[in-house]
Amino acid sequence: MPSKMGETVDRTLGISANTPVANTAASSHLQSSTKRVALVIGNGNYLAAPLTNPPNDARDVKRALEALGFEVKLAVNANQKQMEKLIQAFAEQLAGAGLGLFYFAGHGTQYGNENFLAPAGLSPSSDLDIQRHSIPAGQVLAMMETVGTPTKIIILDACRNSPFGEKGLTVMTPQSQYNGGAFIAYATKPGDTAADGNERNSPFAKSLLKFLPQGLPIEILFKKVRTAVKAETQGRQTPWEHTSLEGGHLCLSPCVETSSQRSGQCQMKVGEGLYEGECQNGIPHGQGVMRYGDGEYYQGSFSNGMRHGLGTQYLTDGTEMEGTWMNGKIR
């Protein structure tokens, strides 16, 4: 790896197909002793455009999170004042927590650069009416940052198509300087609308509930959710994520040990580093990210465990070594 411009160091991964893959739970932000709290809201009782699934989605997500050790407060069909009180109580509950999670299912829409989450009972007559009587989603994120919650997760299964005139949600940018960062998941891409579905759960909630207990790093979890939702909706809905997470893997359920013979997506500890991405026969092969113990990392193509193809090495001094790699060295 080039540690300075013009200086080349060979930094191969040094693993083989027989190398055992380490359990990555020890490298996760999320340890079993960390206090984790969640606020889950599902609103479907709207005077205009009622929704069937959000209460089911919220109840099922609550049960799933409790099974993973979260302290969960659930609210179904909460009006504006109730939502405001719930968010204030959530702020108090976050004291001393290592991870906070906010989940909302229901109507939501974007005006300007803000996302508004609709309380139950809302029957807006104008855009201004929605803004006055809805909850700004950015307010929840700002509260979590002000409280100082190290790791913040916001999941919005909102912007469901309706006469609310929804324009879809806009991307919220975490401003936190605290370690851990934030992860924000949307049921569909910015500016688009999501389906409520014809089953017990929305397509997004259904897929989330399927993959939540599987011990996957959160980035891989939501990649799988995206793939499943796109397949179910025949490409009409594409879930989206935005993150400022740092460090090792974050798993909402205990990170699972990946088989050394598994092909596809994997995560593994390599020496003092961590690899996440595509694997073949238990070694990095394809697109992935290798984070080294000294803070540097490589993102790009791997072949048989070595950096090979297009990729970029990010150095601790801010230097980016971008180019074509061959057998672990940049050309």
Provide the fold topology.
Blueprint: E1 36-42, H1 54-67, E2 71-76, H2 80-93, E3 99-105, E4 108-111, E5 114-117, H3 127-133, E6 135-136, H4 137-147, E7 151-157, E8 181-186, H5 203-211, H6 218-232, E9 240-243, E10 264-270, E11 273-280, E12 283-291, E13 297-303, E14 306-314, E15 320-326, E16 329-330
Parallel strand pairs: 1-2, 1-3, 3-7, 7-8
Antiparallel strand pairs: 4-5, 5-6, 8-9, 10-11, 11-12, 12-13, 13-14, 14-15, 15-16
Helix pairs in contact: 1-5, 5-6
Summarize the structure in words.
Helix content is 21%, strand content 29%. By secondary structure, the chain is of the alpha+beta class. It folds into two domains: 36-243, Rossmann fold; 257-330, no CATH class. The strands form three sheets. A seven-stranded antiparallel sheet has the order 10-11-12-13-14-15-16, with no helix packed on it. Strands 2-1-3-7-8-9 form a six-stranded mixed sheet, sandwiched between helices. It is elongated, with a radius of gyration of 21 Å. The model is unreliable at 1-33, 174-179 and 258-262 (pLDDT under 50).
Core attributes:
331 residues, alpha+beta, Rossmann fold, seven-stranded antiparallel sheet, six-stranded mixed sheet, 6 helices
